[in-house]
Please model this.
Amino acid sequence: MKALVTGATGFIGSHLVEALLQKGAQVQCLVRQTSDLTWLKNLPIEVVHGDCNDKASLGEAVKGIDQVFHLAGVTKAIKDKTYFEVNA
Model:
């Protein structure tokens, strides 16, 4: 199985990546150019640069993927529109 994980650089996302690897999955992580990859360091993953709000990068990221784990999101936003754009 090849999995795509958004939000992989976060606490929960990085633990999900580790669990998927332990189960034998190939893991690809969609991360922004500015993301801190500290929690993913030395893991056998494929990093794809993009953004959940960019349709083009999402389209490229899901090519050949069997399962998507969408953990990227926000818990607070100044505008409702921003909250729903990121979390939908």
In short: The CA atoms of residues 73 and 87 lie 5 Å apart. The longest helix spans residues 11-22. The chain has a mean pLDDT of 93.
